[in-house]
Design brief:
284 residues, TIM Barrel, 8-stranded parallel beta barrel, binds 3-methyl-2-oxobutanoic acid
């Protein structure tokens, strides 16, 4: 059964934790969907994990539509949320509605996600009025990396914590159907979760949220280098891939691959005839 905004809302009410993972392509989306994950986020993190950028800022609407369309072809039941990339909603309300609409019409997403609190409430309201569900995103919002001066935990002093609570209430009032809380203290996320009627989905925000989201490359150990403290490695797929690829190189070099079972047969008579013809050609 297709997960919807109502499914997520019911999960909050019943205490059934919401599961969300990122995906950026058809094959991965299909696996995640078949495992029964409630929601797939086509995050603008694709800029880093799929396109090799340093941060999410260079990601374009075209990138997001291309990857969202691939994901929605693979996701039958998961609720697909597509990120609005940097500068696709900041300039004007009109831009925000137009670009949200493209992610739904051209990408096939079920909802869009955008970053920010009070300052984006007019965008949220306008997009929701156009019948597009909006997931908000508060805390360590990666599109503000330059303004924050790096990827830093947010809401650690009283004023900033209070502002996050106010922002959460404002985005809910503006019509957001859920909110991602990223990189904030667990106790603060718990307070926000208890104050909201819409679900909170945490990443680096403790287990008091109504659900969790992770970048799939992080939780499957496909990324190398520094991983944030909140990431748990659920399986070492990176190691499995490296082993498989090394084995492929070895067997191809030695001639062990392809073996008999990987090759197609042909009638011996045909080969014999071809060989005879070839001999005759050479004798001419
Ligand atoms: O882009 C993304 O993957 C995200 C998650 C980290 C929440 O926004």
């Amino acid at each position: 059964m297709k997960n919807t905004v109502s499914t997520l809302m019911q999960q909050k009410q019943s205490g059934d934790k919401i599961t969300m993972l990122t995906a950026y392509d058809y094959t991965t989306a299909k696996i995640i969907d078949e495992c029964g994950v409630n929601s797939i986020l086509v995050g603008d993190s694709l800029g880093m994990v799929m396109l090799g950028y340093e941060n999410t800022l260079p990601v374009t609407m075209e990138d997001m539509i291309h990857h969202t369309a691939a994901v929605t072809r693979g996701a039958k039941n998961s609720f697909v949320v597509a990120d609005m990339p940097f500068m696709s909603y900041q300039i004007s309300v009109e831009d925000a509605v137009k670009n949200a609409g493209r992610l739904i019409k051209e990408g096939g997403a079920n909802a869009v996600k955008l970053e920010g609190g009070a300052e984006v409430c007019d965008r949220i309201e306008a997009i929701v009025n156009a019948s597009v569900p909006v997931v908000a995103h508060l805390g360590l919002t990666p599109q503000s990396v330059n303004a924050f001066g790096g990827f830093k935990v947010q809401g650690k002093n009283y004023e900033k914590a209070k502002k996050l609570i106010d922002d959460a209430l404002k985005i809910q009032k503006a019509g957001a159907c859920a909110v991602v809380l990223e990189g904030i203290p667990a106790k603060l996320a718990e307070i926000i979760t208890s104050k909201l009627t819409i679900p909170t989905i945490g990443i680096g925000a403790g287990n008091g949220c109504d659900g969790q989201v992770l970048v799939y490359q992080d939780m499957l150990a496909l990324t190398t280098g520094h991983t944030p403290k909140f990431v748990k490695k659920f399986a070492d797929v990176g190691e499995l891939m490296r082993n498989g690829i090394t084995e492929y190189i070895k067997e191809t070099k030695s001639g062990a691959f392809p073996a008999q079972e990987h090759t197609y047969a042909v009638d011996d008579e045909i080969i014999k005839k071809l060989a005879e013809e070839s001999d005759n050609d050479e004798n001419c």
